[in-house]
Amino acid sequence: RICSNTKDVFVCLCGYVSKKVRLREGSHREAVLSLSWNAHFRNVLASASADCTVKLWDVAAQSCQSTLTHHTSKVQAVAWNPAEASVMLSGGFDKFAHLLDVRKPDQTVKVALSADAECIAWDLHQPQCFLVSCEDGLVVCHDARMLSSSSSSSSSSGSGVYTLAAHDKATCALSFCHAAPQMLATASTDKTVKLWDTSSGAPTCIATENPKVGAIFSMGFCKDAPFLLASAGSKGEVNVWDTLTNSTVARKYGHAAGRQPTVGNGMVFGHAGDRNEANDVE
Predict the structure, then answer these.
(1) Distance (Å, rounded) from C-alpha 237 to C-alpha 272?
(2) How far apart are CA 225 and CA 223, in angstroms?
(3) Per-block average pLDDT, block size 10, for the chain (282 residues)?
(4) Quick one: pLDDT at residue 277?
(5) Please, are residues 160 and 113 in contact by the beta-carbon 8 Å criterion?
(6) What whole-number distance in Å separates Cα of residue 138 and Cα of residue 263?
(7) pTM
């Protein structure tokens, strides 16, 4: 699976490496499960792996600068904070999320999870808040300012801003809309994408879509066209949905895009979607 492509760097996320490939010193020993570019230092890349580590890379120098070992099982997800260059979040199969400043890697705050971590995401509009989704379908929002910290690793639980039972199966992807601060998308192996209004602090589902890509493993809003939502799944196909073609989304957020509410098929690439207007919350 191709993860990123820049002028000088081509990064792949894959489950195995051929024995003929010559690896850089400090490379992961198992599958790389997640990558995150630092928004402030574009030469800095974080990688999370099934070898239980998170590594920090200087892409320009093509070298591993640091290896973090705060997880005790596979590390499924990693993400840099969008506002604080040195702050990182990771989640693993040890049923913990870790919040840390990479300048002090031994001082982490652990957040206990209900199941194995599937995905993590910082709130683009409130960068002090982050979400963690789990294998049991739950999504929990935390305010980093409310988590306890100490000179050594500490554990926090029960400090969530809200808990959302998003899906009946694993919630594998999370994404905030760049243009609508209160709109969150979740996607799952139950084959659906859901849109949530988080403005009240108790998220409500405003739309459900089946993009017909199978069990969904990856999904995200486009930054440049913020109401387009792409998803990919077990069928090996990608689907793009113009969420403003959903009448409820258009009424609530159409002003942010400068568009009038419309009704129509929101699928602009891939299979035609299985729209379920009955599941829309007015």
Answers:
(1) 12
(2) 6
(3) 39 52 88 96 97 97 96 98 97 97 94 97 95 97 82 53 96 97 96 95 94 97 96 97 96 76 46 44 36
(4) 39
(5) no
(6) 31
(7) 0.82
User: Quick one: CA dihedral 20, 3, 216, 140, positive or negative?
Assistant: positive
Name the E strands within 106-192: 108-112, 117-122, 129-134, 138-143, 154-156, 160-165, 171-176, 183-188
Whether 81 and 64 have beta carbons less than 8 Å apart is answered as: no
Q: Which amino acid is at 166?
A: A
Q: Of 79, 50, 84, 52, whose CA–CA distance to 68 is shortest?
A: 52
Q: How many helices (H) and strands (E) does the chain have?
A: 1, 24
For residue 130, CA distances in Å to 139, 141, 144, 157 come to: 10, 6, 7, 14
In angstroms, the CA 197 to CA 255 distance is: 15
Beta bridge partners of 2: 12
Do residues 90 and 145 make contact, with C-beta atoms less than 8 angstroms apart? no
Do 62 and 37 touch, CB atoms closer than 8 A?
no
Whose CA is closest to 68, among 28, 38, 36?
A: 28
In this structure, are residues 166 and 190 in contact, taking their beta carbons and an 8 Å threshold?
no
